[in-house]
Amino acid sequence: QVQLVESGGGLVQGGGSLRLSCAASGRTFSNYAMGWFRQAPGKEREFVGAISGSGGSTYYADSVKGRFTISRDNAKNTVYLQMNSLKSEDTAVYYCAAGSLYSVRRGGPDYWGQGTQVTVSS
Fold first, then answer.
1. How far is residue 102's CA from residue 97's CA, in Å, rounded to a whole number?
2. How does DSSP classify residue 53?
3. φ and ψ at 88, to 5 degrees?
4. Which of 33, 92, 109, 120 has the fewest Cβ atoms within 10 Å of its own Cβ atom?
């Protein structure tokens, strides 16, 4: 089992920045690809980005490419999502996830965090 706990959400003005963190425990962190997903009110959960176990490869949804950056610190068992140039449409609950890189990129990771709210005011 892997436990995931997100933090760092909050209210930010449009154009601002926010960094989310996700702390993992339970298994060897570097064995897992990590991903970020989000769900806005009334919408399906969507893929935001993913990072391989080593951190050497990253993948992003087109909607966030160039604005969001995923990184990980395997020594701290933590993955990050740096969000810049935030827009009102980025408002959502953001979820951290873990699994194989294939499963994370396909939206079917093995483990999910509880989510953290990000609200971008216009």
1. 12
2. T
3. -60, -35
4. 120
Q: What does the DSSP 8-state code read for residue 89?
A: G
The torsion region of residue 10 among left (phi > 0), alpha (psi -120 to 50) and beta comes to left
Long-range contacts of 108-112 (CB under 8 A, 24+ apart): 109/35, 110/2, 110/32, 111/1, 111/2, 111/3, 111/4, 111/32, 112/4
Taking the CB of residue 42, how many other CB atoms lie within 10 A of it?
Answer: 5
Residue among 103, 89, 93 nearest 37 (CA): 93
Torsion over CA: 19, 56, 45, 1 (sign): negative
pLDDT in tens, 12-64: 999 999 999 999 998 799 999 999 999 999 999 999 999 999 999 999 999 99
